[in-house]
Amino acid sequence: MIQHDIAARLESLFSQRGFAEPSVSELKAASSVSLRTLYRHFPSKESMVIGALQHRHERYLAFLEEDVPAQGRDALSHLYQRLAHWMQYEAPNGCMSVNALAAFPDNADVRDAVQRHKQEILQWLGERSGQPALATELFLIHEGASSAWLVLGKAAIEAARSATLTLLGEPRS
After folding, report:
1. CA–CA separation, 34 vs 26, rounded Å?
2. DSSP 169
3. Could you confirm whether domain 2-167 is CATH 1.10.357.10?
4. Where are the chain's structural domains?
5. How far, in Å, are 39, 93, 162 from residue 172 at the CA level?
6. Is the Cβ–Cβ distance between 49 and 14 less than 8 Å?
7. Are 80 and 164 in contact (CB under 8 A)?
8. How many other C-beta atoms lie within 10 A of the C-beta of residue 2?
9. pLDDT digits (tens, 9 = 90+) for 71-120
10. Under 8 Å CB-to-CB from 11, ≥6 apart: which residues?
11. 19, 72, 124, 149 from 13: Cα distances, Å
């Protein structure tokens, strides 16, 4: 349980401050444990990043699943409502996974953690849409919306919802 709590606190810090800025003393302070305890659970900054990414991944999937309709158009409309909320309140600095890749471009473990997250999102979209053959296209729309959020805000989410409906061959509302 302590590792989970540390990962949650590190996630919050990395989300707010990025990966390059926080010093060891800031990581320790944010984790609310001794330096020894922090390093026992996460022996390197990269392992702290991976722990934070895994925690965020679990939170994001649980957030998407909350009150989601079984599948189809309603499930995807729900996704975009949830994504708008997530971006506004949980990811105002953009996708933490993409930011981690930018901060650690040569770290295979960080890359693997990000790829696992993105692959599960792709799978989730295929399952929830009821059209697994369109999972990659839906994933690109989702990722585009989360990337464009920094520039377009809620308009990015609405455009993604509209593009998704067009892809599914349904009339726009």
Report:
1. 12
2. T
3. yes
4. 2-167
5. 52, 30, 6
6. yes
7. yes
8. 12
9. 888 899 999 999 999 999 999 899 999 999 999 999 999 999 999 999 99
10. 52, 53, 55, 56, 59, 96
11. 9, 36, 27, 20
Name the one residue in this structure whose structure tokens are 């799978």. 123
Residue 133's alpha-carbon distances to 125, 137, 143, 167, 168, in angstroms, are 10, 9, 17, 12, 11
Question: How many CB atoms sit inside 10 A of residue 19's CB?
Answer: 20
pLDDT, tens only, 20-78: 889 989 999 999 999 999 999 999 999 999 999 999 999 999 999 999 888 888 899 99
CA–CA dist 51, 45 (Å, integer): 10
The gap from C-alpha 170 to its chain's centroid, in whole angstroms, comes to 27
Residue with tokens 């953009």: 94
Contact between 136 and 173 (Cβ < 8 Å) = no
Q: What angle do CA 106, 150, 166 make, to 5 degrees?
A: 100
Amino acid letter for position 119 = Q
Query: Per-residue b/e over 136-156, b at no fewer than 16 CB within 10 Å?
Result: ebbbebbbebbebbeeeeeeb
Query: Which tokens hold the place of 109?
Result: 């473990």
**Structure tokens belonging to residue 40:** 């026992």
